[in-house]
Amino acid sequence: MNFILWESFMDCLENPEGTKNYINYYSVLTLWLRNNKHYFSEALFKKNRLDILTNLNPNIYVIEDPGFPIASELQRFERNKPKNLEVFAMILGNRLWDMVTIRGKACPNCEGDEMRYLLAEELAKKNKKIILECNSCGWTENIDGTSWEQADKVVILPVSKNEIEKLLIS
C-alpha cells in the first residue's frame, strides 16, 4: 500500500466534520477518491463501482442508517490498514455502497442478508427497472419476487430515496 496515499486518506478522516453524519462522510470519501483517482487503474475503479459511486449526489442517495457506526470509522481504518490497493478499493467501494443502497426483504436464496433495491438500466433499449439483489450471494429478482434475467449491457445503480418512495406509494 502506497504510504503517501494512505497518509492522505487518514488525514481526510481526521477532520471531525467528515464523520459528523453519513452525507458528510460519503462526500469526504468520494472527494478524496476523485482527487486520488490517478493512483487507481480504471479497471479497479470500475470493478469496485467507484466510477459510479464517486458521481452520485449524496443528498439524493445517502440513506439515513447504512448499518455501521460512523463514529468508529477512523479507528477501524487505523487498526486495519489494507495490504494493497486492490483491497483498499474494495473496502472503499463496499463502504460507499452500504451508504447508498436501501435494504429490502431477506434473501430467499441464502437467507444470510437483506436484499438491496437497485436500478437496472438496459443501455440498448434505455429501459430502467427496479430490482432487488442480495449483497451476500448475488441472487437478483424482480420486485414481484420472480428471478431477474439480466439483459446484455446493463448498468446497475443504487435506487435513490425518491425512487423508492414512488415505488412504495404506487
TrEMBL record:
Annotated protein name in UniProt: Uncharacterized protein
Organism expressing this protein natively: Paenibacillus riograndensis
